């Protein structure tokens, strides 16, 4: 570190459980952000299976605690995260690592959110300070614990001017609205790719609907979609956040493979349309990040249903695949600088809140 600038690594393994994203940035935790490197390491199918088993067990648990299956998965992914950092740094130094961990259950209404991964162990293994458990302080203070990325969206957008809307289409979707005065409004919009992934996995053993080709060959069943979108959660105002498992495939279970994919993809677009009603103003365009921006059918349906042009964040020079990992690097530096990462407008926390636990090496 020199003159308030940190070399920070960020590690994210999102709700789609596709693997680990690792990014290296130089930042002061405020407006200076310089990307230095990025890599993705896919999870092996066996790891993903262990994570799915952990999620199933976590769903049945009243409070996070020791569990042999979950603890083993946590140790396995911690070792994989250490490998990812070594591959990213290739021996170069870093001042801090922001370690999100794998969300296996998210229950802010019960006062907890659970990201597995051993922050202390990672710091020991790497010999670099690690900031982990970034969501719990927010939940303990009465926030939703998510979304956290808005503070990083604000840093990136500072050069753009004007209201900006950033839509993340990951396993779960979320939107950040940055007003002209830099005020942030953010919330989860609904399942983005999670249900589509679950559908194609269950029917054909596929990890996702590549390019949206399956959805493009099916027909949207509007009455089924209306039933799915009619639940109170979508009409409820923010703050709000979602567990990956909050919605099921029940409503589409009688549809053909292609029609199910089409209906679920349209449902994701519809949830974004419903979310826009909760923003203080209608954005002129949607800057789309997350893996869903690679789904051409979803992008087309999004623009059609919202009536707003939807462009990948690359249109403004951001790195869509790296953004979440970069964001957790940025948040780790903010933790070291005692700067807040969540706000009343983003998670509903009563006051701006510093998040994360620092594990020294
Ligand atoms: N080429 C593609 N075509 C269609 N869908 C894709 C493509 N590439 C990625 N996706 C979708 O994007 C998902 C991964 O997105 P992303 O990596 O942003 O999610 P995540 O970070 O795990 O989730 P979250 O943001 O909810 O934590 C995949 O599971 C898949 O559904
Ligand atoms: C509890 C949890 O892990 N939530 C994730 C998830 O994936 C997308 C959406 O739901 C978002 O709220 C959050 O992740 C991003 C990185 C965030 O906090 O901004």
TrEMBL record:
Its EC number is 2.7.1.170. Keywords: ATP-binding, Carbohydrate metabolism, Kinase, Nucleotide-binding, Transferase. It catalyses: 1,6-anhydro-N-acetyl-beta-muramate + ATP + H2O = N-acetyl-D-muramate 6-phosphate + ADP + H(+). One of its GO terms (molecular function) is phosphotransferase activity, alcohol group as acceptor. Gene3D superfamilies: 3.30.420.40. InterPro entries: Anhydro_N_Ac-Mur_kinase, ATPase_NBD. Pathway: Cell wall biogenesis; peptidoglycan recycling; Amino-sugar metabolism; 1,6-anhydro-N-acetylmuramate degradation. Belongs to the anhydro-N-acetylmuramic acid kinase family. Catalyzes the specific phosphorylation of 1,6-anhydro-N-acetylmuramic acid (anhMurNAc) with the simultaneous cleavage of the 1,6-anhydro ring, generating MurNAc-6-P. Is required for the utilization of anhMurNAc either imported from the medium or derived from its own cell wall murein, and thus plays a role in cell wall recycling. This is Anhydro-N-acetylmuramic acid kinase. It comes from Sphingosinicella soli. The gene is anmK.
């Amino acid at each position: 570190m020199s003159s308030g600038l940190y070399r920070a690594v960020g590690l994210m393994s999102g709700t789609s459980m596709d693997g680990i994203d690792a990014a290296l940035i130089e930042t002061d935790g405020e407006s200076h952000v310089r990307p230095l490197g990025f890599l993705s390491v896919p999870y092996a199918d066996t790891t993903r299976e262990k994570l799915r088993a952990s999620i199933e067990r976590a769903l049945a648990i009243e409070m996070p605690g020791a569990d042999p299956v979950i603890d083993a998965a946590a140790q396995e992914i911690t070792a994989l995260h250490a490998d990812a950092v070594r591959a990213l740094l290739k021996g170069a130094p870093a001042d801090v690592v922001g370690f999100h961990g794998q969300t296996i259950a998210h229950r802010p209404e019960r006062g907890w959110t659970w990201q597995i991964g051993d922050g202390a162990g990672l710091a020991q293994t790497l010999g670099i300070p690690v900031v982990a458990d970034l969501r719990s302080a927010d939940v303990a203070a009465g926030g939703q614990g998510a979304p956290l990325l808005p503070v990083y969206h604000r840093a990136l957008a500072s050069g753009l001017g004007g209201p900006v809307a950033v839509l993340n289409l990951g396993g779960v979707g979320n939107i950040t609205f940055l007003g002209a005065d830099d005020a942030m409004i953010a919330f989860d919009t609904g399942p983005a790719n999670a249900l589509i992934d679950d559908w194609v996995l269950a029917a054909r053993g596929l990890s996702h609907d590549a390019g949206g080709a399956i959805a493009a060959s099916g027909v949207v069943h509007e009455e089924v979609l209306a039933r799915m979108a009619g639940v109170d959660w979508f009409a409820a105002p923010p703050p709000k956040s979602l567990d990956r498992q909050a919605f099921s495939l029940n409503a589409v279970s009688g549809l053909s493979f292609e029609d199910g994919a089409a209906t679920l993809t349209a449902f994701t677009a519809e949830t974004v349309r419903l979310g826009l009603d909760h923003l203080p103003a209608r954005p002129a365009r949607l800057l789309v990040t997350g893996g869903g921006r690679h789904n051409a059918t979803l992008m087309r349906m999004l623009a059609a249903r919202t009536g707003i042009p939807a462009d990948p964040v690359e249109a403004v020079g951001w790195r869509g695949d790296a953004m979440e990992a970069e964001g957790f690097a940025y948040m780790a530096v903010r933790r070291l600088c005692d700067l807040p990462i969540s706000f009343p407008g983003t998670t509903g926390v009563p006051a701006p809140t510093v998040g994360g636990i620092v594990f020294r090496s």
